Amino acid sequence: MKIKTWYDPASLSSGNDTQRLAAAVWTELELASGLSPYGPVITGSIPIAISTEKSDLDICCCATDLMELRSAIETHLSGKVALIINLKLIRGIPSLVCKFVYKNLPVEIFGQSIPSTEQWAFRHMVVEKRLLELGRPKLGEDVVGLKTKGENTESAFAKALGLDGDAFASVLALEKLSDYELLLLLKKVGY
Q1: CATH number attached to the domain at 9-118
Q2: What element of type H or E holds 43?
């Protein structure tokens, strides 16, 4: 028996409008079965309820052979959606980025040879969820406001929290802090 998590598509199906849409896209495109060999995990702003109109459904996958993942995506989604697939280095790691739109929801499948739950996107989402729970509701409102003005999620968190340097690295560094330490940071910047 699989234990449901807060980022599980089944959990999203009872969430807000965007979360329900994401769950429907996941189900209708049968992404769980189509991507199953690659440990797909939904990440990003949708599971933590800070998405905006420009947010996409992010899915992390683990593949030691990115060309095999590419072929699996093309085979599974061929004829269903128009795919844009690129292979690139991201932070020095070979990565696959596949983008498409379904039901007016942009979707991004991201693959690296790193386990899905160890990839930066997943780890960002986990620490951001902790921050949102500790700084509710004001932090969430501020982050969504910054995102609406054009900031990506990590940049919005970094600005709201007064973090310096690379937003992606700065937000990720917070995962090492205890909830107490995060509360102190939140209090320091007015949350």
Answers
A1: 3.30.460.10
A2: strand 41-43
